[in-house]
Amino acid sequence: AWNNLGLTLASSNQVDAAIPCFRRAAAVMPGLLAAHVNLAQALIQKRDAVGAMEALRLAAALHPGGAVEFARMMEGLGDELMGLGRREDAEAALNGALALNRASKGAHQSLALMRYRQARFTEARLHYEKALANDTTDILTLNNYGNILKAMGLAPEAAKVLAQAKELHPGQWETHSNYL
């Protein structure tokens, strides 16, 4: 009943009132996956990275097969928080996504961008390399990885990566705009 009440409130834009209902549902029935997921979604709407991360961690423990989906939810929250300038909260959400799914390409890409903006190029490079381990043909990741290498003074390596991007995607402007 608590979970259903929370859903009713959330669907009528009363997220603040829905959160205690989802918490109560999760407390009364700790094995109710929907209560944890609904709580996480409500907390994401409120941009509460820490609370959402905990709810998703509990959901993943109940349903390990959903960890990739739950990680994507955290990635989205992290990206939104980064856009709002809440770097620490964004980092917590993105690291939460990686805790749920170590291979999360989106979390690695976002953390790489964050590190690039902080001029922490070595860390940015490592995150782009992990993102590329999942998809070696992603133009955005290849392009940004090339830019990181260039910023690190590794022009030959950057040229190789950007040439690969250009070869894989010859018609896209991204491969040409930063080609060395």
Secondary-structure class: mainly alpha
Q: How far apart lie the N and C ends?
A: 61 Å
**How big is the Rg?**
19 Å
Overall 3D shape: elongated
Descriptors:
180 residues; mainly alpha
Explain what you see.
There is one protein chain. The chain has 180 residues and is an all-alpha fold. The protein is elongated. The mean pLDDT is 89. The chain is built from eleven helices and no strands.
Short description:
The chain is mainly α.
Q: How are the elements arranged and paired?
A:
Blueprint: H1 2-11, H2 15-28, H3 33-45, H4 49-62, H5 67-83, H6 87-100, H7 105-117, H8 121-134, H9 139-151, H10 155-168, H11 173-177
Helix pairs in contact: 1-2, 1-3, 2-3, 3-4, 3-5, 4-5, 4-6, 5-6, 5-7, 6-7, 7-8, 8-9, 9-10
